[in-house]
Design a protein that fits this description.
60s Ribosomal Protein L30, Chain: A; 7-stranded mixed beta sheet; about 325 residues; 5-stranded mixed beta sheet; Phosphoribosyl-aminoimidazole Synthetase, Chain A, domain 2; 2 domains; homodimer; alpha+beta
Chain lengths: ~325, ~325
């Protein structure tokens, strides 16, 4: 890689990002895990995320709200209860203070909703043209109850795969806002904190593993699970919850919602009878359209989509995401 | 502030930054402390910093090393022993991967030297022209031993003020590199982790309060202590350790080293007989030029410099730092 340069694909969260992590970061840092969040002493779970979304204000949220929910979700996917956030702003000279105020209010509102507290921060300003408005990095700290250990190692044949609602909403909201597609009503981002929903799910005792389907989408998570465990996965096209306008944009632009970033959706691997859990999820604000989309199976080696006409189509790991700056 | 815009001064760490913190951040977040680092459960201390230094490579360090030492130091100033770092990169499209590798190796080297471990990270890429090479945010986590509680509330009349060496080195190294002053030998940044020195100092039992003299320099820390405590401070011009080349650049450009950012210097408030402590500090790699520069006194109300001819000159809190992107 020595004469190469960074491309937008290196930030996509897909294959090129993983290459960068493996060849540069992990080689130096020898990270304890490549998961988003890490457990340290005293059942403490920590995570960190940079946010560069464009536009910074979008239907359903803004960069402030996203910075909170994204980090809250990374802590939550470990099964931990997020409690604190630390936040840094990198701001471009000339940025309107009223927008900074609005974003900061969004941060606080989202923090209150997720029951987390902002405890420290830092602000840097760079010259005009050296940033794109504002970039925000958030670090989340949460605490794990005893007996919770969500890892892909728990997953077994026969486990069901549940998503908590429609996929692709965030990406389509951003495409619509960024490319001025003028869809009406404007699609809304699903940007939301899932800590509460996860805690509800954990009560079932049946949860093996959860991941939030951000960059790379549902298909990337399924591929990571296959890479980690070697277990085959089939999901059913007709069971995947997807809004009409998202389907329309996918058709129009040749995109696949299964690879689209979400900001309020999780993919969970669940054992045993999942019907009670599914009902409880459907009664939760963040789980209304929860659906079993597939299962872990030794029928296949890899990740496959059973199409509506019954065929099996492989869902590969992509190298890159066509849409930069989605979060 | 509603029709105002962000200026470089808002990122200076001086008065304008404090205004932003008070009027926007603290108003929303109700921060537990305006210190850089915060104590949470289990004697855990956390801090976060964004780094936007320009140029990214400079004599004595680079943005990778600085990101580690700066955050290690913020944790250390609380008296805590830093243990973990989380790191995010925001990279501009087109950035050479060999530079990313070099920076990442610096991060790892500085982390090893400070005995901290990088445990998690995130990478985002933005389009060409939307960042300036690379910005790095680091979050530090450390642990406090029992009985350590460094706060400005501990400070009393008669306490001595010690710095651990020459001031202004980092800023002059950056000015020289950025403005092509071509000073020879090129001034070196003092960029270094101080966790080890701080732990040595704490053994004396005489340390009341320590801060690292980064943005805003020594004078800003002294003003913050005066604001917090109402106690007067006099420092002596002829006792302030300063290198000849730094003095020369200050004279040339009309700058004051007392307001310059350092990256390996601390200001400590010490009670009792400080001569043994001072000797021990001088034997430490990061404290060779340690000096008592002044003391806390009820002779004055405010922060004053006793000049070499014996007069008292007030050292005010500045609104802004003349040099953006110093860290």
């Amino acid at each position: 890689m020595k004469d190469e340069i960074i491309t937008l694909g290196h930030g996509s969260g897909a294959g090129l990002t993983k290459k960068l992590i493996n060849e540069i970061f992990d080689k130096n840092f020898k990270l304890p895990t490549l998961d988003d969040a890490v457990e340290i002493e005293n059942r403490t779970v920590v995570t960190t995320d940079a946010h560069v979304i464009k536009p910074i204000f979008f239907p359903g949220g803004d960069i402030g709200k996203l910075s909170v929910t994204g980090t809250v979700n990374d802590v939550s996917m470990k099964g931990a209860i997020p409690k604190y956030l630390l936040i840094t702003y990198i701001i471009e000279e000339g940025f309107p203070i009223k927008d900074l105020k609005k974003i900061t209010e969004s941060v606080q509102e989202a923090a209150e909703e997720a029951n987390v507290k902002i405890i420290a921060g830092d602000t840097k300003v760079v010259e005009r043209g050296k940033a794109d408005g504002i970039y925000i990095t958030t670090t989340g700290i949460g605490f794990l109850s005893k007996n919770i250990n969500l890892t892909s190692k728990n997953i077994q044949n026969g486990d069901k795969i549940i998503v908590n609602g429609t996929i692709g909403d965030h990406t389509v909201a951003i495409i619509n806002a960024r490319e001025n597609l003028n869809l009406t009503p404007a699609p809304q981002s699903d940007c939301a904190s899932l800590n509460n929903l996860v805690q509800l799910m954990l009560k079932s005792g049946n949860i093996k593993f959860i991941r939030d389907a951000t960059r790379g989408g549902v298909a990337t998570i399924l591929n990571e699970v296959f890479e980690d465990t070697g277990l085959g996965i089939i999901i059913n096209e007709e069971d995947i919850p997807i809004k009409e306008n998202v389907e329309a944009v996918c058709g129009l632009l040749g995109l696949d919602a299964l690879y689209m970033a979400n900001e309020g959706k999780l993919v969970s691997f669940v054992s045993g009878n999942s019907s009670i859990l599914l009902e409880e999820m459907k009664n939760h604000k963040q789980g209304k359209n929860s659906t079993i989309i597939g299962e872990v199976t030794n029928e296949v080696k890899g990740v496959y989509l059973r199409t509506s006409i019954g065929g099996l189509r492989p869902l590969m790991m992509l190298d890159s995401d066509p849409l930069p700056r989605i979060c």
